[in-house]
């Protein structure tokens, strides 16, 4: 039995719906549905640990890997509160990426989080809310913001340029980005297309501006398209 089937089996035995599992684990419903449908080949460790916490099971119950039930580290992890589990999971995920995927991209600089505040990089090279700006710089400054249910998922901040996302977002606004999640259709994201950075709404096969004066940007017109994450908010 593979991981997905084991998750479904435990979820069914505990009579937990996808909506409840998403809300309690903090995993977006769209991401959870993709995982349970088998669309995700290798679920992230952070995702599995979040599911284990809600389903009240061991990681080994899902992966089949042998982890002694008396392992003191595992027992300590289970006794942490939600904040502690989130912090440990974040560290594991970042270190796994560093060891197995090479040095992280400049836009994926590790985030330092605490109970009351988050310190994360603000990149002073603006992302376009217009026709596109080349992302070829790496200078940034650390900023500290209050930790809330929404801001705790931010990995970095970017200053936008242009008026194509008016009236909701304006030139000079600083937006927060979760680099671990790709936008669903209708959600806002950061995209690098042939080296140019865009802040747009994802339309499946195109990038859409909120300002009706701007035409849609077809993704098929680019040779290389990379999503850098989903926009989760704006600094006041």
How would you portray this structure in words?
This protein is of the alpha+beta class and 236 residues long. It has two domains: 3-100, 434 Repressor (Amino-terminal Domain) (Orthogonal Bundle), CATH 1.10.260; 106-234, Umud Fragment, subunit A, CATH 2.10.109. Helix content is 29%, strand content 26%. It contains seven helices and eleven strands. It has helices spanning 3-13, 18-25, 29-36, 45-55, 59-63, 72-78, 82-100; strands spanning 112-113, 117-128, 133-134, 140-146, 156-161, 174-178, 188-193, 196-202, 206-208, 217-218, 225-234. Helix 4 (45-55) packs antiparallel against helix 7 (82-100). The protein is globular, with a radius of gyration of 19 Å. The protein starts with a helix and ends with a strand. The model is unreliable at 66-70 and 103-115 (pLDDT under 50).
